[in-house]
Amino acid sequence: MTDSLAKTLNALGLLAITLVLTFAFADQLAKDDLPCPLCLLQRAGFALAGFGLALNIFQGQRARHFALVILGAATGFMVSVRQIFLHIAPSSPYGSGYGDTFMGLHFYTWAALLFGIIIIGSALMMIFDNGYKADGTDRARNTVRPTGLALFAFGAFSLLVIANAGSTLLECELGLCADNPTAYEMLENS
Amino acid sequence: MMVLPFLLVAIALGLVFFEKPGAGYVVWGGGVLWTLWLLNVHATDKLNLNF
Asked: Which of chain B's residues have a Cβ under 8 Å away from the Cβ of A177?
């Protein structure tokens, strides 16, 4: 795999994660549907996974960066699976499922699927990349600053992470969020 | 407390942008551990939240 192809694929991956965060954020703003604590932790999982792809864009594709992607996605996967288990029982007092659906699946189910895809995608990228040598060293650092699509993906992803930080601060202030939040605590208390 | 994972990732991204990836790793690691700790708090009997 050439460096430019690797950079493009990583940029597209980061854009895909940005798209997921944008969709969740748009749903929050458009429907005034505040994210629950587990929903926020799933968003954090996407942010943690995206950081590894950002490293690939800035430092060149390396195995350790994919390790970060996998660890971040695994963290998010654990959170989303917990939420699936909480609401999977038909006799749940909260009804079947929680929150909005998209194409018939709840957001947390989509999150679990996407985290799984991220983990598998990272493993495939490591299999098909020829930059990892038999002596254990990987490809030399690519210190060329990103431009074009890669820089746009990094900028958009960073903006979404900062926007989520601001939104979470408004919703939960500096503590834990309400179980089923209905208002931005910081705005209510001001 | 819930804001910290996003804050730490944002700081880590800034560190990568300004070519300090080593520090970015450390800050990102803090974000992972904090997220896992929040999941633990969420799931334990102390809170045992449903959402």
From this structure: 2
Q: Residue B1: which of A158, A161, A175 has the nearest Cβ?
A: A175
Q: What is the DSSP letter of A132?
A: B
CA quadruple A32, B36, B32, A35: dihedral, nearest 10: 0
Per-residue confidence (pLDDT) for residue A182, from 0 to 100: 83
Residue A122: φ, ψ to 5°: -65, -40
Q: In this structure, are residues A76 and A111 in contact, taking their beta carbons and an 8 Å threshold?
A: yes
Token pair 């604590």: residue: A37
| pTM confidence score | 0.90
Query: Of how many residues is chain A composed?
Result: 190
**ipTM surpassing 0.90, yes or no?**
yes
**B15 Cβ under 8 Å from any chain A Cβ:** no
Strand partners, A138: A132
Mark yes or no for CB contact B9/A169 under 8 Å: no
What's chain A's average pLDDT?
Answer: 87
CB pairs under 8 A between A and B: 113
C-alpha radius of gyration, chain A, whole number: 18
B27 to chain A, minimum CA–CA distance in Å?
Answer: 11
B22 CA: distance to closest CA in chain A (Å): 11
Residue A140 has pLDDT above 70, yes or no: no
B21 to chain A, any CB pair closer than 8 A? The answer is yes
Say which residue the tokens 């903006």 belong to: A159
